[in-house]
Amino acid sequence: MKNTICWFEIPVYNFDQAEAFYNHIFGIKLHRGETNGCLMGVFTGGDEEGVHGAIVKGEGYIPCDHGPVVYLNGGEDLNNVLSKVEEAGGSILMGKTFINQSVGYVAMFYDTEGNKIGLYSEK
């Protein structure tokens, strides 16, 4: 097994708002689709073997700030993504924080749905 995690889902109520938020902070376009009655916005890009995921609106998907935390790739410098969080309607919980030389940096924010999301970068 190459990765412990292979897929993640971020629950949302207001799909359009959440889609606009993630598109803005990452400078991407989520790929919209529907699976098993759930509306999904799949994060695109990266290699075929990497971890992939989506924002999801549907029965049983409830945004929260106290469940497991997903750390998304912040790119070369996570401040590039973090600097867009508040202007897109989210709020910063923890700014860029150095862990150690071998790990790198992390940050945390609340998205527009109230989910606590982490960011990670090596620099």
In the CATH classification, which architecture applies?
Roll
Helix content: 10-25%
Strand content: 35-45%
- Summarize the helix and strand pattern as letters: EHEEEEHEEE
Low-pLDDT ranges: none
Shape: globular
**CATH superfamily membership, which one?**
2,3-Dihydroxybiphenyl 1,2-Dioxygenase, domain 1
The name of the CATH topology is 2,3-Dihydroxybiphenyl 1,2-Dioxygenase, domain 1
Largest sheet, strands/sense/barrel = 4 strands, mixed
Instruction: Report strand order across the widest sheet.
Output: 1-4-3-2
Our count of domains comes out at 1
Give the C-alpha Rg: 14 Å
User: Structural class, judged by helices and strands?
Assistant: mainly beta
How many separate helices? 2
Mean of all residue-level pLDDT scores = 93
What is the C-level CATH assignment? Answer: Alpha Beta
Written overview of the protein:
The protein contains two helices and eight strands, in the order E-H-E-E-E-E-H-E-E-E. A four-stranded mixed beta sheet has the order 1-4-3-2, with helices on one face. Strands 5-8-7-6 form a four-stranded mixed beta sheet. A hairpin with a 3-residue loop joins strand 6 (91-100) and strand 7 (104-110). Helix content is 13%, strand content 39%. The longest helix is centred in the N-terminal third of the chain and has 12 residues, at 15-26. It is globular. The model has no long low-confidence stretch (mean pLDDT 93). The two termini are 27 Å apart. It has a single domain (8-121), classed as 2,3-Dihydroxybiphenyl 1,2-Dioxygenase, domain 1. By secondary structure, the chain is mostly beta strands.
